Amino acid sequence: MSQPGTEYLDADVLVIGGGTGGPMAAIRAKEANPNLRVVLLEKANVKRSGAVSMGMDGLNNAVIPGYATPEQYVKEITIANDGIVHQPALMAYAQGSYDMIRFLDSLDVKFEKDGAGDYAVRKVHHMGTYVLPMPQGHHVKKVLYRQLRRLRIGVINRYMATRLMRAADGRISGAIGVNTRTSEFLVVRAKTVIMATGAAGRLGLPSSGYLFGTYENAANCGDGHAMAYHAGAELANLECYQINPLIKDYNGPACAYVTGPFGGYTANNKGQRFIECDYWSGQMMLEFWRELQSGNGPVFLNMTHLAPETVSEIETILHSNERPSRGRFHEGRGTNYRERMIEMHISEIGFCAGHSASGVWVNEFAETTVPGLYAAGDMASVPHNYMLGAFVNGAIAGARAASFAAEVDLAEVDADFLAAEQARVLAPTLREDGLTPHEIEYKTRRLVNDYLNPPKVTAKMRIAQERFAEIREDLSHMVARDPHELLRALEVQSILDCADMAAAASLYRTESRWGFYHFRVDHPETDNENWQCHTMLWRDQDGAIRHRKRPIAPYVVPVDASEMTAYQRLRIPAAQAAE
Amino acid sequence: MPLANHDTSVPVIVDDAKCIAAKGCRVCVDVCPLDVLAIDVTGSRAYMKYDECWYCMPCEADCPTGAVTVNIPYLLR
Ligand SMILES: Cc1cc2nc3c(=O)[nH]c(=O)nc-3n(C[C@H](O)[C@H](O)[C@H](O)COP(=O)(O)OP(=O)(O)OC[C@H]3O[C@@H](n4cnc5c(N)ncnc54)[C@H](O)[C@@H]3O)c2cc1C
Ligand code: SF4
Ligand code: SF4
């Protein structure tokens, strides 16, 4: 490969990641101040990138007047997360939820309504009612894209951001990106940066062994987590993994939110329910895992008792929106929801605030711990965010970044930093042979499964750290023969960073919490005295991982001790289940 | 370390008779989130170059001539 060139660009607000939260952040920043130069940088193509690439089946967490109040929602999510939440951020989301739904509605996103034109909200959670179906949810990306065009937001596709830049005074000053098809560099100087690069979804290896058969869009491999880490930002509660109950092998949602309201449920091999509530939580996953280990496994999604018309209605949603290849998967296996229960399994591990709770720390203003750096969506630390959370928190980030940009000037690019980053990026292209990104990724993720998956064992996680350190040395033999391989070579470095963070964070919290997500066999009890706090992880000046405890901010919605255990009583007693 | 080639079946197939890449179409290549599709050296057809597919289907949904079929990768099937 010949030495790729470098281009420069200036922006007031740079948004990294054009999936869900990123476009909304760009839209809100531009609406707040139309004079701003807002640039949206995307590794793939904004038209079809991210978790909602093909659309979405519904809102999992809508807070709509008449069905739920922000206070109820904040309480429910606090309980589902064993109390480890930054409630002001949950409240900011809950209060913005309904306005965002109406804004999306005004842009022509279609939600299910009843005969009177009211939103048809359904109950899936343990306590409140928050699920709003979108049977025609396949047009979400089109709607966002149209709005980006209307507002003349600068969209730059097929550039992968690799590192954030900081000014001498410590504030954020832009980012470095690499074209995934030419390996050309783009250096964006920016007054503020908003990150919305999604989950770290390529951390564990799916049980199929197919590297890209992940639950998350496989483009979301933790680049944002790694970039924030290298820029010195703090990440929160990373030991609270994302692990989801999915259709075995297909690895897509099964899905509690769609089939649950129609009467479908999770069952054991006897066809019996064993959990009261299919809402995805660590406690639910723990019961799921226990059932898999018992003689009652595997676990299934049961719809065989439903009327054929109901199943057809479910199929129309499940096979036409977010994961439309699901119908093909069932066809290939000859499985039909009407005739047989469908086998389910546990997903690979990842970091994802959308479904769990961990990520780059943000407060209620979407601010990270680095001045001028914001984060939203699956990569930021607001728990159980889902799609609407990515929109609402993206909007909060956009508005805040717009005002921050008005206060500061562009900083000079640090030439040494840029040169060092270009050397790091290009190193694999300078070798003629060596180790391929594919095999390094496979090995890293296989070791994640072997040693980091819960149930977590201290001695195993220590072995993981040793093996990851060996792989880190192997990186100096990695070879990339074209820009596409270089993309994968850069991604595997993010994956390895995330693997190291997952191990370190899990070792730091010496208790068990969040059901299966942080189930430590050698520290089986929940220790509220010492660990009723956030754990923060960051990289120090010497490149070492550091940790500290962060006290939980005073609750804005009080929760009684008696209510706190609601999610720990999900298992249905055997006698009752048999009915 | 010298490198070996490792062959594998690909999940996404393109019907050459329907593909209008020769007229300049690049839609499927443009939209793929994993960037695994490409136009062949003759410039006449799209094909799956890398077996790194999330079976998400924008390539098939957006192709103007219906030339693309997404199959489930063999390891999952
Ligand atoms: C299969 C599936 C089903 C789901 N179903 C539902 C549902 O029914 N209801 C619901 O409410 N939620 C659902 N969710 C969750 C919801 O989709 C996500 O929480 C939300 O879309 C996350 O938005 P985001 O902006 O954080 O990430 P994404 O929308 O995934 O966007 C991240 C973007 O960042 C880009 N990117 C990554 N790295 C870089 C880089 N280095 N440089 C530049 N760009 C980069 C990616 O290409 C991607 O476009 C589902 C998620 C999945 C995966
Ligand atoms: S979108 Fe369809 S017609 Fe266009 S290049 Fe791809 S396969 Fe060919
Ligand atoms: S199914 Fe998705 S990942 Fe696979 S080739 Fe098509 S667009 Fe790309």
Question: What does this entry show, briefly?
Answer:
Chain A has 579 residues and is of the alpha+beta class. Helix content of chain A is 35%, strand content 14%.
Layout of secondary structure:
The complex is a heterodimer of chains A (579) and B (77).
Chain A: E1 6-16, H1 21-32, E2 38-41, E3 58-59, H2 70-80, H3 87-106, E4 132-133, H4 140-150, E5 154-156, E6 159-166, E7 172-179, E8 185-195, H5 223-230, E9 235-236, E10 245-247, H6 256-259, E11 265-267, H7 282-293, E12 299-302, H8 308-318, H9 326-333, E13 342-346, E14 359-360, E15 373-375, H10 386-407, H11 415-426, H12 437-451, H13 458-474, H14 483-508, H15 528-531, E16 534-539, E17 545-550, H16 561-564, H17 574-577
Parallel strand pairs in A: 1-2, 1-8, 2-5, 8-15
Antiparallel strand pairs in A: 3-4, 6-7, 7-8, 9-14, 9-16, 10-13, 11-12, 12-13, 16-17
Chain B: E1 12-14, H1 27-31, E2 37-39, E3 46-48, H2 58-62, E4 68-70
Antiparallel strand pairs in B: 1-4, 2-3
Bound molecules: flavin-adenine dinucleotide (FAD) and iron/sulfur cluster (2 copies).
Tell me what portion of residues of chain B adopts beta-strand conformation: 15-25%
What is the CATH architecture term of chain B? 2-Layer Sandwich
Please tell me the overall pLDDT of chain B.
96
In percent terms, what proportion of residues of chain A is strand?
A: 5-15%
